[in-house]
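It is worth pausing here to work through a concrete case rather than discussing structure prediction in the abstract. The textbook approach is simple: state the sequence, then state the predicted structure, then interpret. We follow exactly that order.
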Amino acid sequence: MVEEMDLRTFIIIDNMQPQYAAITGTVVKGDISLAGMCQLYVELAPGSGVYNLLNAALKQTNAKPGFQIVEREYGEIELHSFSPEDIKQAGQAILNFCEKGISERRHPRIVSEQIISNIDPYQAQLINRSNRYGSIIVPGESLFILEVEPAAYISIAVNEAEKNSQTKIITFDPVGRFGRMYIAGTESEVRNAREAAITAIERIEGRE
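Step two, the predicted structure:
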């Protein structure tokens, strides 16, 4: 008998952008992701359910796993491939196993969003010292910060922001209670990134 699962996040990224893919590649524990790949993120509760879901996807497709994370409340898996069909098949294998439809995923909620213009050198340094994986924010640049729930949806927001703007990804975190992203650049480009990220989140259909 399959334990009832709460499908918190189910999202496919069609074309991983260079910065996004590079940062993701520094944190994955399994197969390395590269720019141009397709990617699948699944987040669910209870967290231990990810083991069987990943097992089903790997045995039925050629998609490669980047990580499986099990926390107290939630679990999360990531798969990627240069083949969109591999990712679609992996997603369907996961949905079939947990007996869910894509409409049963949760609709993402924007928890907070803000733009900090002309960032002060001291604040820039504090952000840079706490950031281990992305780019460096330079004093005078503008910074966009977005938080969403469930956390893994921040992945598509970051990727779409990079796709539609000339900005730097300072960092992002798709794991935990909330997903966060920090993107920096000129004021106009940061606003382009904000529009693309929020549009990507708002387009995702799911249950409340």
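Step three, interpretation. Strands lie at 6-13, 38-45, 64-70, 75-81, 109-116, 142-149, 168-173, 179-185. The first helix runs from residue 18 to 27.
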